[in-house]
Amino acid sequence: MKVLVTGGNGFVGRRLVERLLQDDCLLAGEPVTALTVADMSCAGLPADERLRCVEGSIADTEVLQQAVADEPQIVFHLASIPGGAAEKNFQLGLDVNLTATVNLYEACRQFAVPARMVFTSTIAVYGSPMPDVVDDQSALQPHISYGYQKLATELLLQDYSRRGFIDGRIVRLPGIVARPPQPSGLLSAFMSDMFWQLKAGEPFVCPVSEEGVAWYMSVPCCVENLIHAANISPGAIAPRRDFTLPVLRLTMRQVIDGLAQRYGEDRQQLVSFEPNPQLQAGFASQPPLVADAALAIGFRHDGDIQTLIERATSL
Ligand SMILES: NC(=O)c1ccc[n+]([C@@H]2O[C@H](COP(=O)([O-])OP(=O)(O)OC[C@H]3O[C@@H](n4cnc5c(N)ncnc54)[C@H](O)[C@@H]3O)[C@@H](O)[C@H]2O)c1
Prior knowledge:
Elements: E1 3-6, H1 11-21, E2 32-36, E3 51-55, H2 61-67, E4 74-77, H3 83-88, H4 90-109, E5 116-122, H5 145-162, E6 167-173, E7 175-177, H6 189-199, E8 204-206, E9 213-218, H7 219-231, H8 234-237, E10 242-244, E11 248-251, H9 252-263, E12 271-273, H10 277-283, H11 292-296, H12 305-312
C-alpha cells in the first residue's frame, strides 16, 4: 500500500519510516512518502528507492498537495508542534496542529478511495489535574493549546470518518521514550533524558519527586501500535475510533531502579531530585489508566519495565 508519513523525520516518524521499509511492512512494494520540514531534511532517513521525500511545511498548501499527490492508502499524521512550543507560540500551534491538519483532511477527502488515517493524539486531551482514574469514559478537558488543538482535530477526524471521507484511527500517545537528547520544545523531555543520562553514567537532576508517577511507552512499542492501528479492518474499527493506548505506569523510583539494574547500581548515586511544581503536576501525577477499548482491539504496552528500558534505549 502507498503510505504517507507526515512528521517523517521526527522522533516517532523516523522510527516508523524505518520500520515500514524494513521487511516491506504494510508497503508490499509500494512507496512511502515522508513529509518533513525543510530544516530537518530526509538526510537521516534510510536510503531506499521506495522512499519519496517531500520537504517543506505541511501548512504550505503546495507542499501538502505534493505529499498527497499519489493518493496514499494509509496516512500516518504525526507532524505536530509540541506542547511547550505551542504554548509559547499560539499562532504556530494553530497553523500546524489545527489548520494544516484540517487541510490534510480536506486533501484526503478528494481521494477516489478513502485513506486510512492514523492520527497521533495525546493524553494532554485529559487536561491537568487528571481524574482519579482515566478510562474510556473520562472527560476530555485540555488545559493547554496543544491539547485543545489535538482534541479539535480528533473530533473533526471522527466526523470525516462518519461521513466516509477518511477512515480515521486516533491513538492517544503517553510519554514515548527515549527521545534522543536534543532541544525538542517538549516539557516532558526530562522523561527521556533520564534514560540516556543514566545509560551513559552521567548525573541526572530529576525535576519531579521520586514518588512522581507517569505513563510510559517505548518508541518501538509505539511504532508497532501505529502499524497495528493501520492494520485494523474497517469493520472492526467503527464505531469507536479514539483509543488511549495502554501504558506502563511507573514511579520515577521504579524507572531509576530499573535503569540501575540494567546499567549498574552506581547509577543510583547519579540521581538528585529538584521537583518543579509545574512538571510534577503535568507529568508525574498520572493516575491509573484503564485502557480497555485499546486492549480489546489489540493495542499493547511494553509488558514490563526491563523490556521498556531495553527498547527505549535501542537505536
Ligand atoms: N513523543 C511523545 O511522547 C508524544 C506524546 C503524545 C503525543 N505525541 C504525538 O505524536 C506525534 C509524533 O511525536 P514525536 O515525538 O515524533 O514529535 P516530533 O516533534 O519529534 O516530530 C514531529 C514532526 O513534525 C514535524 N513538523 C512540525 N511542524 C511541521 C510543519 N509545519 N510541516 C511539516 N512537518 C512539521 C517536525 O519537524 C517533526 O519532524 C506528534 O503528533 C505528537 O503530538 C507524541
